[in-house]
Amino acid sequence: MRRWGILIAVLCMALANCKSPAAPKNLPTIVFFYAIPATIDKGESSTLSWSTLNAATALIDQGIGSVSANGNMDVYPTQTTTYTLTTGNPDGTVTATATVTVKEIAVLVLDGTPAKKMTSYSRPYFDGYVKNIGLVIGYNCMIEFHAYSDTGQKTIIDTASGFPSSLGNIAPGQRAHFEAIFFNLTSWDKVKSWDYVITWLNLNARPELVNGMTEGWGL
Questions:
Q1: How far apart are CA 102 and CA 38, in angstroms?
Q2: What pLDDT digit, counting tens, does each position of 82-97 carry?
Q3: Which of 31, 86, 134, 147 is the least buried, fewest Cβ under 10 Å from its Cβ?
Q4: DSSP labels for 30-86?
Q5: HSE-up of residue 155 (Cα within 13 Å, Cβ side)
């Protein structure tokens, strides 16, 4: 009997030290969290989209704050940015990230109104400047002018092209001179209005947006 008493005592101590298995945690689930497009040029937007399950709370960093458990929103990062989605409930938190890569581009604009001049052989031409207000070099820059015989710009009477100095490669903040000659005209009298197109290459942009372009017009 003594032996049985000892055995029962040992079993009681063992049972007292046993812990009940913890209930399984029901953590939130992030079904997806992504950015489309994942790569943009500076100034463009990307759309964040997400879906979650069992989430009592959801928030996105980078100054966005609390969001619904499922949704989408446009963001306009000015530099490459990683967004973190954090979901939570009483059992814990779960996070996921989405990165938007921002490509910097060149932006070429007409710097002031070009002067109307005449060549020594009696051909009208524009004398002016273009400027790169972007953040990287604009390559192979060219400006093209169209001269119209009417202010409604329906009839083109001549076209002139100019390649700015620096071989058309214009650094950020640089101002480059150009001359664009109309070879089929002998005076400015018939030119009632004009427009222009500036084109260049953005070598640092995404492949589908390697060409940059600015348009404008004048009288």
A1: 9
A2: 999 999 999 999 999 9
A3: 31
A4: EEEEEEESSEEETT--EEEEEEEES-SEEEETTTTEE--SSEEEEE--SS-EEEEEE
A5: 7
Q: Where are the alpha helices (DSSP H) in the chain?
A: 2-17
Is residue 119 within 8 Å of residue 125, measured between CB atoms? Answer: yes
* Number of residues written out for the chain: 219
Domain count, the chain: 2
Two tokens at 63?
A: 């100054």
- Provide the pLDDT for residue 68: 96
143-190 pLDDT per residue, tens: 999 999 999 999 999 999 999 987 789 999 999 999 999 999 999 999
Give the CA count within 13 Å in the CB-facing half-sphere of 207.
0
CATH code of the domain in which 140 resides: 2.60.40.10
Beta bridge partners of 128: 178
- For 23, other C-beta atoms within 10 Å of its C-beta total 7
The whole domain housing 192 covers 108-218
Residues 6+ apart with CB under 8 A from 105: 41, 42, 43, 134, 135, 136, 202, 204, 205, 209, 212
What's CA 64's distance to the chain center, in Å?
18
- Angle (CA) 192-194-142 rounded to 5° is 155
Two tokens at 67?
A: 């969001």
Report if residue 194 sits inside a domain: yes
